[in-house]
């Protein structure tokens, strides 16, 4: 398999989406990928953050662990996995702000042909896990990414997640992903690395 770079750009407030991101990273690394985990920064002011128990503490912890994603990260990557909690069945404003910052790369066509996939976490069952990932397909198509769904290509997807991407339900107590959720996330990481590698190799062959 050709050496491959995978960017996992996610937003997480309480750690649920972060947990999936880490498992996707493990899956990608198991295929030999070089992985960058990046947390998108909060866009609301500190006064609002301070009103929600645990938000500031979690943000400070994650910001200490992960750099913010940049244009350079997206250009470096052969595949990009986008992660976001559900916001009314849609992508969070925080993740979308990062996507919107990639306009320069989009204009230059520098993201065309890279692999792309999405994952999400929700606080309630059927709270938009599928619709949120499908919404990500819209901007992935505009960026020129080759969208990589999971389908049912691994038995893990029959037990958890969605055919569109990994997901988990945190409930009201920030329940961590289940072992079944973890299996799906790791499969997503492996699949991303494999597809990104194949696309990269095909691109290199065409340019020779």
Shape: globular
Unreliable stretches (pLDDT < 50, length at least 5) are none
What is the makeup of the main sheet? Answer: 6 strands, parallel
Number of separate helices: 8
Report the radius of gyration as a whole number of Å: 16 Å
Question: How far apart, in Å, are the first and last alpha carbons?
Answer: 18 Å
What is the CATH T-level topology?
A: Rossmann fold
**Helix coverage percent of residues?**
40-55%
H and E order: EHEHHHEHHEHEEH
What's the CATH architecture name?
3-Layer(aba) Sandwich
What report would you give on this structure?
The protein has 208 residues and is α/β, with parallel strands linked by helices. Helix 1 packs across helix 8. Strands 1, 2, 3, 4, 5 and 6 form a 6-stranded parallel beta sheet that branches. It has 8 helices and 6 strands, in the order βαβαααβααβαββα. It has one domain (5-207): Rossmann fold (3-Layer(aba) Sandwich). The longest helix has 29 residues, at 179-207.
Quick recap:
This protein is an alpha/beta fold and 208 residues long.
């Amino acid at each position: 398999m050709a050496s491959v770079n995978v960017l996992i750009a996610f937003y997480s407030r309480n750690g649920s989406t972060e947990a999936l991101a880490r498992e996707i990273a493990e899956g990608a690394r198991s295929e030999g990928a070089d992985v960058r985990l990046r947390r998108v920064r909060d866009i609301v002011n500190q006064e609002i953050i301070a009103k929600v128990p645990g938000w500031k503490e979690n943000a400070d912890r994650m910001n200490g662990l992960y750099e913010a994603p940049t244009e350079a990260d997206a250009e470096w990557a052969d595949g990009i996995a986008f992660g976001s909690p559900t916001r009314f069945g849609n992508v969070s404003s925080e993740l979308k702000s990062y996507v919107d910052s990639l306009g320069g790369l989009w204009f230059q066509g520098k993201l065309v042909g890279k692999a792309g996939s999405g994952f999400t976490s929700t606080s309630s069952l059927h709270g938009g896990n599928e619709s949120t990932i499908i919404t990500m397909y819209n901007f992935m198509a505009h960026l020129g990414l080759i969208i990589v769904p999971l389908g049912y290509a691994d038995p893990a997807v029959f037990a958890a997640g969605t055919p569109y991407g990994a997901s988990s339900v945190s409930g009201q107590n920030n329940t961590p992903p289940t072992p079944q959720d973890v299996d799906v996330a790791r499969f997503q990481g492996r699949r991303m690395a494999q597809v990104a590698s194949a696309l990269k190799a095909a691109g290199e062959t065409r340019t020779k």
